[in-house]
Amino acid sequence: MKKLFTLLALVGVLSLGYQSVAQDESVDTTTTESDTAAATTEEPAIEETPVAEEEPVVEDMEGDRSFHQVVKDKFIEGDVTFMTPVLICLILGLAIAIERIITLNLATTNTDKLLANVEDALATGGVEAAKEVTRNTRGPVASIFTQGLMRMSEGIEMVEKSIIAYGSVEMGRLEKGLVWVSLFIALAPMLGFMGTVIGMINAFDAIEAAGDISPQIVANGIKVALLTTVAGLIVGIILQVFYNYLVSKIDSLVNQMEDASITLVDLLVKHKLTGKA
């Protein structure tokens, strides 16, 4: 009997220990799973601080551009095909006008000083000394004087004819190139107007193709038309100013030649009479 009670007591103790261990493991497992689930579900909330976006700084590009850049952009917008001939007229016209201005300024002579030197030479050394003075002086007036003095031996009438004939030659030299400047003055606006007509034709073609009249459709053609016209008129105005200056300069030189020629004839007559006396 003691062995039986001892066996039953041992079995009871073992069974109670097993149950307590099983309960502890189940509690630990449940706690671990609940903690893991809580950890996965409860994530810390991270507040995002709104970042203020910087507004783009819009610069006034129109005001920052130079005059050269503006002209370049308008030249491209006006269509290079039509603007290039107008630009060529401006370049060639200015080149000829500047060359003529330099030539005419170099041809200007102090006629009063030249006449005084010729008179002194006639009084001291005669006609040959006067020729030497005029040959060493630059300008059309001095060239006319030289031609007149070379005909002194043939008489005063021949001197006058020689001065008149050679004066016409010098006038032709002074007016050299003016015909080209006048051509470019007339040609530049005509090329601009041609660009205007072609631009308007392109605008109407765009309207016909689209079947609608809207500013977006006709703006390109109208812009070409207006820019080419403006370019042609500007070139014509610039060249016209240079042309008028050249004409006035030539008229001034011609008047100097005529006045100086008359005075020279008077000096030669006076010298001839003095020589006879």
From TrEMBL:
Keyword Transmembrane part of the UniProt annotation:
yes
Q: Where in the cell is it found?
A: Cell membrane; Membrane
Q: Which GO terms describe its cellular component?
A: plasma membrane
Q: Which UniProt keywords apply?
A: Cell membrane, Membrane, Protein transport, Signal, Transmembrane, Transmembrane helix, Transport
Source domain of life:
Bacteria
Keyword Hydrolase recorded: no
For this UniProt entry, which residues form the secretion signal? Answer: 1-22
User: Which regions span the lipid bilayer?
Assistant: 80-98, 178-204, 224-247
Task: Please name the InterPro entries in this protein's record.
Answer: ExbB/TolQ_transport, MotA_ExbB_proton_chnl
**Comp. bias intervals (Low complexity):** 28-43
What family does the entry list?
A: Belongs to the exbB/tolQ family.
**What protein name does the entry list?**
MotA/TolQ/ExbB proton channel family protein
